[in-house]
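Milestone M4 deliverable, item 7.
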Amino acid sequence: MSVISKILIAYDGSACSDAALNDLTRAGLPSALEAVVVTVADVILPPPDDEMPADDQPAIRIPEVERHAQARAEKAIKEVRAFAERAAKRVKADFPGWDVRAEAQCDSPAWAVIKMAADLDYPGLIVVGSHRHSVLGGRLILGSVSQRVLYEARCSVRVARCSDERREGPVRIVIGFNGSPDSELALDAVKSRAWPEGSEARIVTALETQTPVSPDGPAEELRAAGLLASRVAREGDPRHILLEEAEKWDADSIFIGTKDIHGFQHLLHGSVSAAVAARASCSVEVVRPEGGVARIQI
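Output delivered:
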């Protein structure tokens, strides 16, 4: 996996979006790349008359209503552009070597982010805040925008934890690994990053039955990349094992492949990636192949 050269940051001015900006300093990203900060006004404007086919023209037009809608949309886009520009300045202050620009869009927020990723020829990474909500029993799940971007984007997505804490120093990374090509992608993503000295990576393998653990080659690869590496293999459900190990170890992030995640229907089918991203107490990076083509088992 090559070094990331372009990222897309979804920002909405919330505390979770601010936490996602903080989390960038813990993501091992290179000192030089292109970063686009996008903020979306959740309004949709009707197309101009000259862009509508004649047979699609509405039977009744109410100019006063249209003017009001236009003014409201213009106000909203002005506000979100200010949010994006403020966030871009903050990112630039943290990463002086980055080429950072702000964008504002009018659309459904999740689809605006997904479409912008396509317009950018699929960046190496999309960054979103977790925007978690409590549901019955006190469990936390991802907000709908973060969910949709995670499931539908055709590139890697980092879901940043919503926390006021801004950590410094070495980073702790958990890697979900089972020897599959998709878990190899997660391993390669970690190896390709520029981590602070002393950072640690822990390979976590969940065994559904008691089976021999494969040789320690992946850990050696991480050590060769400058990380302190260890490995844990436990019998059980990978969704539970990854979450438990990350919390017990106080990990900064979990990296996991995308073999079993694509579309909302997989939320109901027990996707490991979706479950980990929704429930982890740390940031989660769901790694997809480069080039905008998802290698996903449907």
